[in-house]
């Protein structure tokens, strides 16, 4: 029980610094594989070093970061789910231990027992969008991760444009002849 509390405390400390915890072989064996565990771990196995030339790994990592940040900053954040990453160059022994020969791969390690077939995310069939990963995590862990905060930049840009036009019309309210100027409209159209 004391060992479990230490593991959870350490993982929470790492999570407070970064939403995705980087792991090497030793950390993986201690925190992900070794019992006791009362938490789920989502692991992204990847090869991010430039010499590996894995562009898919970088794209998948960006989506994974979005998802992990959403979890870390959500009101539902708890010590029941952790997001980790194992890079091939830092944990080649882990890839060999799990008989992995491709990256990126996402796996769920449940609190008890060994991962089942469904605990490996089907990247080829589903893709690696944050929304798809969130759905898979919810299926495997019953933890619902919110993803991608709404993007209000379009709305803000439109409001700014309307206010600028409104302000211009207000300032020029006594002389609105420029509205009928064909040359002005031609320049604005370009």
Largest sheet: 4 strands, mixed
The CATH superfamily of the largest domain is known as Glutaredoxin
Query: Which regions are unreliable across 5 or more consecutive residues at pLDDT < 50?
Result: none
Beta-strand proportion: 5-15%
Structural class: alpha/beta
What is the number of beta strands?
4
The total count of helices amounts to: 8
Count of discrete domains? 2
**Could you give the order of strands across the largest sheet?**
1-3-2-4
CATH topology term of the largest domain: Glutaredoxin
Query: Helices and strands, in N-to-C order?
Result: HEHEHEHEHHHH
* Share of helix, binned: 40-55%
- CATH class assignment of the largest domain: Alpha Beta
Write down the overall geometry. elongated
- Rounded mean pLDDT is 84
Q: Gyration radius, to the nearest Å?
A: 25 Å
Distance from N terminus to C terminus (CA atoms, Å) equals: 71 Å
Q: How does CATH name the architecture of the largest domain?
A: 3-Layer(aba) Sandwich
Pathway: Protein modification; protein glycosylation
Protein name: TUSC3 protein
Family: Belongs to the OST3/OST6 family.
Membrane topology: Multi-pass membrane protein
Structure in a nutshell:
It contains eight helices and four strands; from the N terminus they run αβαβαβαβαααα. The protein is α/β, with parallel strands linked by helices and 190 residues long. The chain has a four-stranded mixed sheet with strand order 1-3-2-4, with helices on both faces.
Describe the structure.
The chain has about 190 residues and is an alpha/beta fold. It has 2 domains: about 140 residues, Glutaredoxin; about 35 residues, no CATH class. It is built from 8 helices and 4 strands. Strands 1-3-2-4 form a 4-stranded mixed sheet, with helices on both faces. α3 packs across α6.
């Amino acid at each position: 029980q004391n060992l479990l509390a230490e593991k959870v405390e350490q993982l929470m400390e790492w999570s407070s610094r970064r939403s995705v915890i980087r792991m090497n072989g030793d950390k993986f064996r201690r925190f992900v594989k070794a019992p006791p565990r009362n938490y789920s771990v989502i692991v992204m196995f990847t090869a991010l070093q430039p010499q590996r030339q894995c562009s898919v790994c970088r794209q998948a990592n960006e989506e994974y970061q979005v998802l992990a940040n959403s979890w870390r900053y959500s009101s539902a954040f708890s010590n029941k789910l952790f997001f980790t990453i194992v890079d091939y160059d830092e944990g080649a022994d882990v890839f060999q231990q799990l008989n992995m020969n491709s990256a990126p791969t996402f796996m769920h390690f449940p609190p008890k027992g060994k991962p089942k077939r469904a605990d490996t995310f089907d990247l080829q069939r589903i893709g690696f969008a944050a929304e798809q990963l969130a759905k898979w995590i919810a299926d495997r862990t019953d933890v619902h991760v919110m993803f991608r905060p709404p993007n209000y930049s379009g709305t803000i840009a439109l409001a700014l444009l309307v206010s600028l036009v409104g302000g211009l019309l207000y300032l020029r309210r006594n002389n609105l002849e420029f509205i009928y100027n064909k040359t002005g409209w031609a320049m604005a159209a370009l």
